[in-house]
Structures are given as structure tokens and as C-alpha cells.
Specification:
This protein has 2 domains: about 160 residues, ATPase, nucleotide binding domain (Nucleotidyltransferase, domain 5, 2-Layer Sandwich), CATH 3.30.420; about 170 residues, Nucleotidyltransferase, domain 5 (2-Layer Sandwich). The chain is built from 10 helices and 12 strands. It is about 40% helix and about 20% strand. By secondary structure, the chain is of the alpha/beta class.
Length: about 350
């Protein structure tokens, strides 16, 4: 099954062509224009998606030897959550392509897509599983009973972990986005030299809060703290919180697997801590390749393939609209199902 997937939820324009879950060709364009603004400017992001997306599609199809959209079996795009203007660009193009070629269109939930980075087939992960989704916009814990049934355990009450990384890096003059720069700044630093608060650190509480930690970093920086020590302390606090809460839920549910996804999973301290802890417990750990930690179209395509593997006729309504936030407790990959729109 050939699936053409599109991702435009924020500031990355991405297109991928998959044969089932295997990648045939992919392209990602990361918008650099936002760095001078210290954060993503929604209007600029959506305008760049309009300019960039058609060229990316053309490159992917050319590399794949595809001559017409009718050779594609299904089309998928992120419907949300994300920046509505950006999402509408990808959604509009993908719905038009599906309509013009007479093929299925699937609107995909961005959070579920991140988790489906690990989908290689229905038996690729042993369930039950617990998942940590940690990025610039989201920090969530899920209990996953099957690929089609993920239950939200808790999320952040304010800032996401990735946002705290970026904003802490920005105030220290490390630029935006700053997660990788902050990790590099922590090399050689001693996390014990600076004491930072550990908000909502109780591992039994599946919720997060990072706004107070971000403020504490600012106060330390303004008082003249050493950058390497401050970065090391901040990184350790965040990783300790993420790992302790994830492992508590894994132990509590007797999980066979742990899944991690999202931009913050590129952090080496987090990856190493998870590897060590899962090895001790004999739990299978699924970490994304670093190139798939940030937003990409491959995860969207794999989520679509998972849906179609379970229900080959599944599709979203062409009236499927973009949405900025997801609310609920049961996370599913498919948005705006055609059947539900008819009821």
C-alpha cells in the first residue's frame, strides 16, 4: 500500500511516501526564519508551508518514480493539534490530492502520529505499553492497550518540557530552538553546583509542570550562575522528572514495553537513562531514530497505515478541519471519520 503523508503542524514542512510502513522517499524542510524572532511566528510559518510544500511533494514523487497521484493508494495529513494556519496548508493540499485522484484521505492526530513512529506492523510492540510523548508543545503519559487504544494518564499543567528547554536556552543567549544547544552547554557542567526546584516531582502523579523551573533558571542566570553548571542542573531535573514518572506508570501497569517520542527524546541524557532503567527491569524500550524525534511525515504515514491495516476502508471526511488542541482521554490516530460525519 502506497501512502503519501504530509506534516505541517508547526514550522517543519514534511512529505513522505511509504510502502506500508517502509519509507520510499521523504523530505523535510525546517524553517529557519523563526530563529531571529526567538520563536515560531504562525503567519510566517503558514506562508512558508504554502511556498515549500508543492516542491517537496514533487521531489518525493520524482525520487519514487511516481508519475501520477493516481498511483498513490491513500493520502494522509496531520489535522491537529498544532498551529491552525500551518495545519490548513497541509490538510488542504492533501484533501485536494485525494479528491482529484479518487483515493482515501486520512486526517491524522499529531500526538498519535508521534507514537506511531514505532509502528512497523501490528506486532511491532508488545502490549501493554506505557508511552512518554515529550516535545516543544506536549508532555504527556499514555497507557497503550493496543495500537488503536491509548489512554491519557496525564500531561503538563503549563509549559511542555521542550518549551522549557527552548526558553531556558534563549534567555542564556543560546538561540532558538535551543534544546540541542542547552544539552551541549551542559557538557562538563556539574548539576550539583546549582540547586533548581523539581516541580510536581512526585512520580505517582502523572502530571508535569515546568514553568516554575524555567523561572528559576532565569533567576539563577541573572545572578551570574555558570552556564555549564546551570544547563547541567536544568537538564538533570527535567530528565529525572520524566523518567521517574514514566517508570512508575510502567511498573504500576506491568508494562511489557515503553515507548518514547517527540523532540526531547533526542536528548542523550534522557535516552541513556531510559536505556539503563529499562534494561534493569527487562522492559522493551522503543526510542525513535534521532531524525524522527521532531515533526516528520513518516510518523503520519505510519499512523495512517496502522489505521488502514485494521480497517482498510477507513477514511476521514473531506470536511475535516484543523484543530489547535486535543482534549479527551482516549487517543486515536484517525480524525473526522467519514462514518461519524454521516451520523
Amino acid at each position: 500500500m502506497r501512502i503519501l503523508a504530509v506534516e505541517t503542524s508547526c514550522d517543519d514542512s514534511a512529505v513522505a511516501l511509504l510502502e506500508d510502513s517502509s519509507v520510499i522517499a521523504e523530505r523535510i524542510y525546517s524553517q529557519s526564519i523563526h530563529s531571529k524572532h526567538g520563536g515560531v511566528v504562525p503567519e510566517l510559518a503558514s506562508r512558508q508551508h504554502i511556498e515549500i510544500l508543492p516542491g517537496l511533494v514533487k521531489e518525493v514523487l520524482s525520487e519514487s518514480g511516481i508519475n501520477t497521484l493516481r498511483e498513490i493508494d491513500a493520502f494522509a495529513a496531520t489535522a491537529g493539534p498544532g498551529l491552525v494556519g500551518s495545519l490548513l496548508v497541509g490538510l488542504s493540499w492533501t484533501k485536494a490530492a485525494a479528491f482529484a485522484s479518487g483515493k482515501q484521505f486520512l486526517g491524522i492526530n499529531h500526538l498519535s502520529a508521534h507514537l506511531h513512529t514505532h509502528y512497523k506492523g501490528p506486532d511491532s510492540v508488545k502490549f501493554p505499553a506505557v508511552a512518554l510523548l515529550v516535545s516543544g508543545g506536549h508532555t504527556c503519559l499514555f497507557n497503550i492497550k493496543s495500537w488503536s487504544h491509548a489512554v491519557l494518564l496525564g500531561s503538563t499543567r503549563d509549559d511542555a518540557a521542550g518549551e522549557a528547554f527552548d526558553k531556558s536556552a534563549k534567555l542564556a543567549g543560546l538561540g532558538y530552538p535551543g534544546g540541542e544547544a542547552l544539552e551541549k552547554a551542559a557538557i562538563g557542567g556539574n548539576p550539583d553546583n546549582i540547586s533548581l526546584p523539581s516541580p510536581l516531582s512526585d512520580p505517582t502523579l502523572p502530571e508535569f509542570s515546568f514553568s516554575g523551573l524555567k523561572t528559576a533558571v532565569r533567576l539563577q542566570w541573572e545572578s551570574g550562575a555558570n552556564l555549564a553548571d546551570l544547563a547541567a542542573s536544568f537538564q538533570k531535573v527535567v530528565v529525572d522528572i520524566l523518567v521517574s514518572k514514566l517508570l512508575f506508570q510502567a511498573d504500576r501497569s506491568d508494562a511489557a514495553s515503553i515507548l518514547a517520542a517527540g523532540g526531547v527524546t533526542a536528548n542523550n541524557l534522557l535516552r541513556n537513562r531510559l536505556r539503563d532503567e529499562c534494561e534493569k527491569r527487562g522492559i522493551s524500550l522503543f526510542l525513535p531514530e534521532k531524525k524522527y524525534t521532531t515533526d516528520n511525515a513518516v510518523m503520519v504515514g505510519r499512523a495512517a497505515f496502522a489505521v488502514l491495516s485494521e480497517e482498510p476502508t477507513a477514511r476521514s471526511s473531506l470536511s475535516c478541519n484543523a484543530f489547535s488542541r486535543w482534549s479527551g482521554t482516549i487517543l486515536k490516530a484517525l480524525c473526522c471519520t467519514y462514518k461519524s460525519m454521516l451520523l
